[in-house]
Amino acid sequence: MTIHNHIARNVGAEVQQRIDALKIGQKMQDLPEELWHPSFRYYVKEDPNRKGGPNLRMIRLDPEKPSLTVTGYIFNKFVHPIEDRFITVREAARLQGFPDEVQFCGTLTSSQLQVGNAVPIPLAQAVLSAVAEKANTLSMHEIRALSLFSGAGGFDIGAEQVAVGKTHVCPLVAVENWNDACATLRNYAGSRIHIAEMDIRTIASPLDFWQKQTGLDAAPNLVYGGPPCQAFSQAGKQKADDDERGMLIFEFVRFVSELQPEFFVMENVANLKGVAGGALLKRVVAMFEELGYNLDMNVLDATHYGAAQRRNRLFIVGCRHSLGKISLPEPTHGDVEGSLFPLKPIQTVGQAFERLPNALFSNQSTVSNHTFYQKEYSELL
């Protein structure tokens, strides 16, 4: 099978020196001072206020641990555990749980952002499995789903992996206005999911839109998605609902309001809980409750559900009052205090990268034979 998006960036001599000097688990501050980036040196040595921190978080990943959070900006920060290079888009996609069959379209920067912005697929699968469990008790065997803010399809791929008893999730329509992300999802799932490349704000009637896209009279059973979170993230400017990206959270509420699905799942950054002292989240929760939904809400760590990265995301799952309530899933991986059953070991970077071929470098255009790593990571330490 061809492995797409597995190209390592060439770097300058100074950056390569830092990479070569980093040992497993080490960061910029662990390097000899002469190798520090000037902004890091200023932060550590000269900045009296230490405001914001340095703009370099270089770290060599530990193959025996999960990675730190994958974002669209880790590709000059996450160093491969064994090889002296930054990780590739494919390796980051492995940390997010994407199948190797997914080919990310567009420029390198676009591909990086598509991977970094996605919901970790094992986490999406776990949350949507909780919805399917409820549907299964109601003898609802096909959950017709509408995906909003779909990106490259992290939620949708996770949805397609759900099977609980006779119940499965069937994403029928995905709405996304990012051309490259639409191309990525269309290439992978276009035969199964209709990809509507458009701005959600232009959809005046969600029900008319759904009926036109699917040919169905009934509304979807499930609406899920993660409204753009840059306005809420700690890495962003945190303008919240003053930022148009923050306002899109109310587009999600609008679709739930007008479609009245049996279930919905909304995902966002954990920091949404702190925006405006929690007022924004309380407002959104109150709106969902007024629409007639029982809610469960919590911040979930992706490592607890089989992803090889530490990534905390806020999930709200809603179930119509008349149908009862859905609880978010209990952890399946890790050492979690109070767990009622044995948990699987947390997935590691080494496990995520297993059996990947050697990466091409950006100045290489072809490779005749991919050679696989012949030794376990532990043998190389």
Report on this structure:
The chain is 30% helix and 16% strand. The chain is an alpha/beta fold and 381 residues long. The protein folds into two domains: 119 residues, no CATH class; 203 residues, 3-Layer(aba) Sandwich (Rossmann fold), CATH 3.40.50. The strands form three sheets. Strands 4, 5, 6, 7, 8, 9, 10 and 11 form an eight-stranded mixed beta sheet that branches. A two-stranded parallel sheet has the order 1-12. Strands 2-3 form a two-stranded parallel sheet. The longest helix is centred in the middle third of the chain and has 17 residues. It is globular and about 65 Å long.
Relevant terms:
single chain; 381 residues; alpha/beta; Rossmann fold; 2 domains; two-stranded parallel ribbon; 12 helices; 12 strands; 16% strand; globular; disordered C terminus
Quick description:
The chain has 381 residues and is an alpha/beta fold. The protein contains twelve helices and twelve strands. The protein folds into two domains: 7-96 and 352-380, no CATH class; 121-323, Rossmann fold, CATH 3.40.50.
The CATH architecture of the largest domain is 3-Layer(aba) Sandwich
SSE run: EHHEEHHHEHEEHEHEHEHEEHEH
According to CATH, what is the class of the largest domain?
Alpha Beta
Shape field = globular
Helix content: 25-40%
> How would a textbook summarize the main sheet?
8 strands, mixed
Mean pLDDT: 90
Number of domains: 2
Q: What's the count of strands?
A: 12
The CATH homologous superfamily name of the largest domain equals Vaccinia Virus protein VP39
The amount of beta strand, in percent, is 15-25%
SS-derived structural category: alpha/beta
User: What would you report as the Rg, rounded to the nearest angstrom?
Assistant: 22 Å
**Fold-level CATH name of the largest domain:** Rossmann fold
Q: What is the CA-CA span between the terminal residues?
A: 29 Å
How many H/I helical runs? Answer: 12
Low-confidence stretches: 233-238, 365-381
